[in-house]
Specification:
By secondary structure, the protein is mainly alpha-helical. The protein contains seven helices and three strands; from the N terminus they run H-H-H-E-H-H-E-E-H-H. The chain has a single domain, classed as Winged helix-like DNA-binding domain superfamily/Winged helix DNA-binding domain (Arc Repressor Mutant, subunit A), CATH 1.10.10.10. Helix 3 crosses helix 6 and helix 4 packs across helix 5.
């Protein structure tokens, strides 16, 4: 019988492989490839498209990075005209980050790509396997959401 540790090692390898496969996908929008944008950039775009304008601290918390790392990533998105800094007139000390049209277009392309990929994964399973896969995946996500530590705290 396989031990929990052996399963954990196998799962860890599979998770790394999935992450590597995604970042090397030829289907990634050309802009991601040519401008050297990574998954953290995509997560920031997704956050500001989904939630609207956010402060740097809100972005850092959402994507589980330090404020300084989030700032560097946002600087890169601003430089590439995918995001913009907004100073609300009521408090010029506050800086919020919003998305540009081209940033929204890229985020929408990525979201559609994720849906297509999820469909391709699910197509390989029969109905019973899909249901079980979804149950287990949602259970794992819930467990990860409840984990008290994050990368930003390390």
């Amino acid at each position: 019988m396989t031990s929990l540790t052996e399963h954990a090692v196998e799962l860890s390898g599979a998770m790394r492989l999935l992450a590597d496969l995604f970042t090397e996908m030829p289907e990634l929008p050309r802009q991601m490839q040519t401008e050297g944008l990574g998954h953290h950039h995509a997560r920031i775009l997704h956050a500001i498209v989904t939630d609207g304008e956010l402060t740097m601290s809100e972005i850092a918390r959402k994507i589980k990075l330090s404020d300084s790392s989030a700032t560097i990533l946002v600087d890169q998105l601003v430089k590439k005209k995918l995001a913009l800094r907004i100073r609300p007139p009521e408090d010029r000390r506050v800086v919020r980050v919003g998305v540009t049209r081209s940033g929204k277009k890229l985020a929408d392309e990525l979201a559609q790509l994720f849906i297509v990929l999820a469909g391709q994964i699910l197509e390989t399973l029969d109905e019973k396997e899909r249901e079980r896969y979804m149950q287990l995946t949602l259970k794992i996500v819930d467990t990860l959401k409840q984990t008290p530590h994050s990368r930003a705290e390390r």
